């Protein structure tokens, strides 16, 4: 089981969908491993989760929301909305 929260930007990016990694790097104009650390994510625990077939939405206690997609091997972050 991978450590959560990840300790490095590289580990955090490994949990993102490929398209999400690419979009983040492009938007922030830096490699994903640097960009993800610049987001100032809350890292709070889940308050509520909703799963529909192979997609999920997790609302975190501090207000952020994470959207997940199930892949063949594990759940991956597809998007996030920061509070």
Molecular structure report:
The protein has helices spanning 9-14, 18-28, 32-35, and strands at residues 46-52, 55-60, 65-70, 75-81. With 83 residues, it is an alpha+beta fold. The protein has one domain (9-81). A 4-stranded antiparallel beta sheet has the order 1-2-3-4, with no helix packed on it. β3 and β4 (75-81) form a beta hairpin. The radius of gyration is 12 Å and the shape is globular. The model has no long low-confidence stretch (mean pLDDT 87).
Q: Give helix and strand order, one letter per element, not per position.
A: HHHEEEE
Can you list the strand order of the major beta sheet? 1-2-3-4
Average residue-wise pLDDT: 87
H/I helix tally: 3
Question: In the residues, how many domains can be counted?
Answer: 1
Sheet/helix structural class: alpha+beta
**Distance from first to last alpha carbon:** 28 Å
Beta fraction: 25-35%
Q: C-alpha Rg, in Å?
A: 12 Å
Give the number of DSSP strands: 4
Largest sheet, in brief, is: 4 strands, antiparallel
- The gross shape turns out to be globular
Which residues sit in consecutive blocks of at least 5 with pLDDT less than 50?
Answer: none
Please bin the fraction of helical residues.
25-40%
């Amino acid at each position: 089981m991978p450590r959560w929260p990840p300790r490095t930007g590289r580990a955090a990016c490994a949990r993102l969908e490929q398209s999400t990694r690419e979009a983040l790097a492009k938007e922030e104009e830096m490699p994903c491993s640097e960009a993800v650390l610049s987001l100032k994510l809350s890292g709070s625990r889940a308050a509520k989760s909703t799963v529909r077939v192979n997609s999920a939405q997790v609302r975190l206690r501090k207000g952020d929301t994470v959207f997940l997609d199930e892949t063949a091997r594990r759940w991956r972050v597809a998007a996030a909305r920061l509070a």
